[in-house]
Amino acid sequence: MTNGIVPAPIAGLPWRLIFLMFAMTGFGTVILYSAAGGSLTPWAGQHFVRFLVFLTMAIVLSRFPLDFWKKITIPAYFGALALLFVVELIGQVGGGSQRWINIGFMTLQPSELMKLAIVLAAAWFFDRLPPSKINSLDAIWPIIALLGVPSILVIIQPDFDSAIAFAFPVAVMAFVAGMPLLYFIGGGASLAAIAPLVFFFGLKEYQQNRVLIFLNPENDPLGAGYHITQSKIAIGSGGVFGKGFLNGTQSHLDYLPEGHTDFVFATMAEEWGLMGGLAVMAGFFFLLRWGLRVGLESRSRFGQLVAVGLTAMMFFSIMINLMMVMGLAPVAGIPLPFISHGGSSFLTVMISIGIIMSIERHPARRQFG
Amino acid sequence: MAARNMKEERGPTSGQLEIRFSRRTALVGGIQAALGAVVAARMTYISIFENEQYKLAAESNRVNLTLIPPRRGWFIDRYGKPIATNRADFRVDLIPERVTDKAKTIKTLGELLSLDKDDIERINRELSHARGFQPVQVKDGLDYESFARVSVRLPDLPGVSPRQGFSRFYPSGPAVGHLIGYVGIASAEDYAKNKDPLLITPGYKIGKDGLEKAFEDRLQGKPGAKRVEVTARGKLIRELSSRSDTPGKPVQLTIDIDLHNYASRRLGLESGSVVIFDCLTGDILTMASMPCFDPNSFSDGIGALEYKWLRQDDHIPLLNKSLQGLYPPGSTLKPMAGLAMLKHGIDPEETVSCGGGYRLGNRVFKCLGRHGPMNMRSAIMKSCNTYFYAMSNRIGYDAIAPAARELGLGQEFALPFTSQRYGTVPDSEWMRRKYGKEWSRSDTLNATIGQGYVLASPFQLALMAARIASGLKVDPHIIAGKRKPAQHLPFPDEHLAIVREGMDMVVNGAGTAVRSRLDLPDVRMGGKTGTAQVRAIKGGQRGQSGAWKYRDHGLFVCFAPVDQPRYGAAVVIEHGMGGARAAAPIAKDVLTFLYDREKAMAALEALEAGWGGTPVERMQRSLDAFIAASRGPTREDSEAAQKKQTEAG
């Protein structure tokens, strides 16, 4: 690896990954520059600076050994739970839903931290669970408990989207950890069965509307369906090569709402077209492939599960966001990693990358058992 | 318990789990890649196969095509003087679907434009009925300062649209309401018919009544267009291109607008109509009907109270009395009857002695006086019923009715007015058709003196006068242009001359209208008075007193100059009690105006001083009083009324 010119610690960095992230964030910065009408403020500049800070942090995190992550799992989980309680209390005092805590240079969304903590906690649990117990009930209830408590807290907020975001990586982890296939088939079937019940009794009216409007956006051309319609117009009008940098009208004339956060992909697609879209998707493909590979190559069960879990978590955000902007999923407040302007979710992604990098650096001994 | 579990369900080993992990992770990766491919395919579909559709959608988002309403063609009179024009106008509209906070927006506009309660009520009402883009007028006819006040506040008033445009203006005000009609905002039904976006463009008005409606196509013109780039909130970014409007074509009427205005004013406090024809061509010179609404207030969008005020008036300002008012013509039909009698061999010199009435069977038909021996000329002059009873009884009404029709009574005319009423000329056949009974001699007697079943509009009476005066079967015209020469009436000139001599004597001899002879050196007017009963005479009480609505109508048909007739006219005054008393003096002044404007104006101004000013002034006072009465007097209202008055002045 070392060739003598660059010092070993630098040469040892996963340069391909870093380059990929630079490319994606750089593209995100260019899009945010355009979204602001050709200006570094208020989004593009901050976005890139944040990335540099988060990247440094991720590289630092990658130096921590795997045991460190195991050790902090339980305190991290309960810490995130405590923060969720805190926002819940503040939110109730404030009389509405509150999901953020102001920590000075950015606002922190505890549910974002909880996403990480849940993945770590689930991996920690499966790592400790004796292999023979994986088919037993003993394997199920702790998972349900560690998923259930934070889910209930965010559903109360109400933030149903986060609850699903918690559940998805945990389900993937449980699957790859080796839980019986029957659970997933049965679970899928029962989800399909209770979905209508959840829809009618579990969701708030505005959430129900989002689903209904997703199914039929024309019913509400000026309300929530407007987002989906305008997003599709932005993407579709871009064509193959787009309208050109700074030439998007949907975003510049404010037809596209949230063009710098949740709908940033549409802003991009209008100016860069299908080519830009495929490039972004390719970037995510390489990133996620890297994450899964790290999992597959890790010789530590904890590392394997964390890498797959965090990758699943990132995949979920990316996929929901892309499906949303293309009208394949209901509108949910989920930003696009590296591209969307925003603090908490970007931080979560970069911490995840840091942890996966740490797993990559510390593949551990092959365990024989 | 643990031991039992161990036996019953032997779990996988760590090695098995390791293999499961690898396989399942690969499967997860595969599923993720597949989902990624679905999204990529979806995007490809949207940006390639639906590209065209979304391009159009993006373009229609971006570009807002604003139509510039065309200026409406003018109405001008026979000498080119304007009757209906356009005035530059600053206006403010609301685009309902862009308004975010209705209450706040209306409140702010109310303060900026000092809208009164009536306006705000109307805006709220129209806003609740409005469909999407159809603009709701807040106010037009603004001065530049109010307009600018709203314009600078635009950023915090989404949906408010200040515009500069043109609005219809009628210099003659209420005088031309019935003649020209009025314009107004197209209704939802109008728009539903052909979906023309021009119809929902703010400031665009279409003809709603009268000639404005009849000549809509000609007056309309072609709209201009302005393409502008706008943001989602409707903020204008830049102008892309524009095309100016093509104004509508003017319509020239046969009306003499000065004469028409004079006639309208001269009707004064009465409810009635003045129609004057050029009796050589059939051109309508005047068709005044008063009281009337002011078409200017209709084109501004009339207030609910103002409309109520018009509706409650017992003089019916919403009815065009010239064309739609039907009256028993009374004695004005006697010259016509004379023509019919001459045609049927009655010697004009034969006398009938009037002893105050005519006995038919056991019933006596009364005359207005005891006239003694009467021939045709003197019977016309004195309006002697007895003479006409006797002669008509001799020839029968079926001999008279055709003459009435020759002169235009009961006839339909091809005029561009939406509603005309044609009256009735009865005869025995009509009686059978309508009532299934036989025509009686007493019916003849009644019809001859213009009572009973006979009904005519002032317009028809004027046409009758014009035809008798010229001897030509002229057709009525309202649109200026060349005419085919009219044919002669089927009455010999000698007959016409006899009748005209009788009419000359009515005014210039010892007739019923001698007080209304023209005060002009070389122009004489001939005429015939008429008094039409509104209800049957009971116990000797004639319609000369009592409640206004039961009084007799006063009518007068006339022509001038007697020696070489040029003008034929009719004046009808509802409940004016008598033709000589109410109608003839008006005819005198109006015809005087044709020859000596100064003299006529002097007479009018003296009268208007007693009536309380011009029609516009009187209407405004009446409206203010009505508004004050219907709301109860508050300081706010009197201030608003005062403001309105100063604006009007």
TrEMBL record, chain A:
Membrane-topology descriptor: Multi-pass membrane protein
Q: What is its main location?
A: membrane
GO MF terms on file? lipid-linked peptidoglycan transporter activity; peptidoglycan glycosyltransferase activity
The protein's Enzyme Commission number: 2.4.99.28
Q: What class of enzyme is it?
A: transferase
CC per GO annotation: cell division site; plasma membrane
Transmembrane ranges, per UniProt, are: 17-36, 48-66, 72-91, 103-127, 139-156, 168-201, 272-292, 304-326, 338-359
Quote the catalytic activity from the record. Answer: [GlcNAc-(1->4)-Mur2Ac(oyl-L-Ala-gamma-D-Glu-L-Lys-D-Ala-D-Ala)](n)-di-trans,octa-cis-undecaprenyl diphosphate + beta-D-GlcNAc-(1->4)-Mur2Ac(oyl-L-Ala-gamma-D-Glu-L-Lys-D-Ala-D-Ala)-di-trans,octa-cis-undecaprenyl diphosphate = [GlcNAc-(1->4)-Mur2Ac(oyl-L-Ala-gamma-D-Glu-L-Lys-D-Ala-D-Ala)](n+1)-di-trans,octa-cis-undecaprenyl diphosphate + di-trans,octa-cis-undecaprenyl diphosphate + H(+)
Which is an annotated Pfam family here? Answer: FTSW_RODA_SPOVE
Keyword Ribosomal protein assigned to the entry: answer is no
Please provide the record's keywords in A-Z order.
Cell inner membrane, Cell membrane, Cell shape, Cell wall biogenesis/degradation, Glycosyltransferase, Membrane, Peptidoglycan synthesis, Transferase, Transmembrane, Transmembrane helix
Instruction: Write out the annotated subcellular location.
Output: Cell inner membrane; Membrane
Q: Establish whether keyword Transmembrane helix is in the entry.
A: yes
The metabolic or biological pathway listed in the UniProt record of this protein is: Cell wall biogenesis; peptidoglycan biosynthesis
Recorded hits in PANTHER family, A to Z, give: CELL CYCLE PROTEIN, PEPTIDOGLYCAN GLYCOSYLTRANSFERASE MRDB
Give the protein's biological function: Peptidoglycan polymerase that is essential for cell wall elongation.
Family note: Belongs to the SEDS family. MrdB/RodA subfamily.
Give the protein's recorded name: Peptidoglycan glycosyltransferase MrdB
The organism that produces this protein has a lineage beginning with:
Bacteria, Pseudomonadati, Pseudomonadota, Alphaproteobacteria, Sphingomonadales
